Model the fold of this input.
Amino acid sequence: MDTPFEILGLDPDADEDDLVAAYRERIKAAHPDHGGSAEEFRRVRTAYEAIKEGYTAEDHATDLQRAAEESGAGEEREGATETERTDSAAAAAGRPEGVRVEYLSYAALDDFGWTIHDDDLFEKAAEEDLRAEDYGEIFVSPRDTLLEAAQEHGLGWPYACRGGACANCAVAVVDGDLEMPANHVLSSEMMDNGIRLSCIGTPVTDDMKVVFDIKHLPGLEELRLPPQQARRMSSD
Ligand code: FES
Done:
């Protein structure tokens, strides 16, 4: 909140003549007939009256100090809220920080004759003794994309450009949702079917289930960068 001196654009050490001059100038500009508003007009007049009635440079300094402290405390509260939101959700669930993502490789579907549309796909996967690179769970922090989280967990999911310009990193979202800042590659039909790009996608639901390395799903092979180019980009 501005102090009366700030509202009038006046130096706190100004004398009475300066006060009157500043008031005249400001009140004219604040008048509704000169492009101001009734609210601004009232604000300038109240500021002027406050100084006339004894609001001092010392009061001004105290108010500025208080405003700075309140704003600092507000920022701290906001920061804490952000952290607390993630931490408390994780703590409440008794699990690591972040969104829980259950993953399954498309290769495992092939091996067991499952399809992406099987209602109990992940239940069936949980009952098999699958390798960690094919099935498991990771936790994605709000700062990471799904691909980054997979890599942090040591998983070798495919990718190439890392910028949303190919489909090498595509995953099929079976449960939950993965939000992408933009999409210039996937068709609306693919989007409707839950296909997303893991290199730019961040989970927006508390839990997710995804199938990765889905290059054999219709239409995706054509959107992928060829192996040589993909290798070059992923090693850059
Ligand atoms: S790696 Fe190219 S879009 Fe994700």
In short: The chain has two domains: 1-94, 99-235. The first helix runs from residue 4 to 8. The chain is about 45% helix and 15% strand. Residues 8 and 26 are 6 Å apart (CA to CA).
